[in-house]
Amino acid sequence: MGVEGCTKCIKYLLFVFNFIFWLAGGIILGVALWLRHDSQTTNILYLQLGDKQAPNTFYVGIYILIAVGAVMMFVGFLGCYGAIQESQCLLGTFFTCLVILFACEVAAGIWGFVNKDQIAKDVKQFYDQAFQQALMAESDSNNGKAVVKTFHETLDCCGPGAGAAVITALWKEELCPKKDSFMQSATQLTSSCHQKIDELFSGKLYLIGIAAIVVAVIMIFEMILSMVLCCGIRNSSVY
Question: 3-state DSSP call for residue 156?
Answer without folding.
Answer: coil
